[in-house]
């Protein structure tokens, strides 16, 4: 049994590419599509990671703001208590 494969190239560049790769232009195109799909998935994963990072930064900012508010409230309460002690003395 003999199997014969003929690759058809539209131009010399395609012919050279087929010779170098040892596969047909159709197979090269399929590989390219698979690579593009992988890149698209990677970009989607990066976008999700960016969203998660932004979300984490927002939460961190809210926590910092809450802590700052509590510190300010505590400082106000301490100052008010000191004022009352001064008035009672």
Q: Return the string of H and E elements.
A: HH
The whole-number mean of residue pLDDT values reads 84
Stretches where pLDDT falls below 50 for ≥5 residues? none
How many strands, what sense, and barrel or not for the largest sheet?
none
Shape: rod-shaped
> What is the alpha-carbon Rg in Å?
34 Å
What's the total count of β strands?
0
Share of helix among residues? Answer: over 70%
Termini separation? 112 Å
Structural class label: mainly alpha
Oligomer: single chain
For the structure shown, list the relevant keywords.
89 residues; mainly alpha; rod-shaped; single chain; 2 helices
How would you characterize this protein structure?
The structure is a single chain. With 89 residues, the protein is mainly alpha-helical. It has two helices and no strands. The chain is rod-shaped, with a radius of gyration of 34 Å.
Reconstruct the topology from this structure.
Elements lengths: L11 H10 L3 H64 L1
Concise overview:
The protein has helices at 12-21, 25-88. With 89 residues, the chain is mainly α. It is rod-shaped, with a radius of gyration of 34 Å.
């Amino acid at each position: 049994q003999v199997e014969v494969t003929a690759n058809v190239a539209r131009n010399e560049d395609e012919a050279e590419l087929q010779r170098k790769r040892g596969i047909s232009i159709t197979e090269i195109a399929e590989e390219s599509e698979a690579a593009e799909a992988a890149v698209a998935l990677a970009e989607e994963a990066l976008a999700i990671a960016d969203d998660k990072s932004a979300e984490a930064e927002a939460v961190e900012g809210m926590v910092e703001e809450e802590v700052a508010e509590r510190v300010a409230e505590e400082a106000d309460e301490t100052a008010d208590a000191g004022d009352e002690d001064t008035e009672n003395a």
